Description:
By secondary structure, the protein is α+β, with helices and mostly antiparallel strands. It folds into 2 domains: 8-68, no CATH class; 80-180. The chain has 6 helices and 8 strands, in the order E-E-E-H-E-H-H-E-E-H-E-E-H-H. The strands form 3 sheets. The protein has a 4-stranded mixed beta sheet with strand order 3-2-1-4, with no helix packed on it. The chain has a two-stranded antiparallel ribbon with strand order 5-6. A two-stranded antiparallel ribbon has the order 7-8. Strand 5 (86-87) and strand 6 form a beta hairpin.
Amino acid sequence: MFNPFNWYWRADDGRIFASARQQIVDETDPDFIAFAEVQAPTTWPRDNDGTQTDAALQGVLDPYFIFVTLEAYAANERWKLETGGIASTAGVPLKTDDRGKTMIIGAGLLATNDPNFTTTWVGADGELYPLTNDQLKQQVGDLQHHIDACFVAYTDIVTQVRQKKITSHQQIDERFKAVKG
């Protein structure tokens, strides 16, 4: 029975992906041998050009949060950090999902265009926070600094992955944890 969390995919070029470990293994891997004795691995999926790519397999595994490459894992972790919320310099816990970011930017634009604009913000904690015009504009800055820090860390991680200096999910987690503080 298909279990995406403990399955193998084989590409025509010999690559074998083990979902349980989220890594490439070879034909001599003991777990792969045991699997192959009772179940044939699935053929590695192809992209629109007919090529068996990591991205094509990632598309199959995305719903399960299984990552074919460290770069794909890093991209997901960056997104989770970016959308996981922040505390503004005004002390407001902010939602930073796409809707939250849109509202923060919208309020900041209005505050920039109307020096008398103030409002009461509903924080991520459900509490009410009366904010001045300057605080509303600062929330936009806080948000953008947060997003930038996420992408700077991601860029650094991907560079280190490509240089083989980062070789595990744990190392990626530690780097993003440093950004979160």
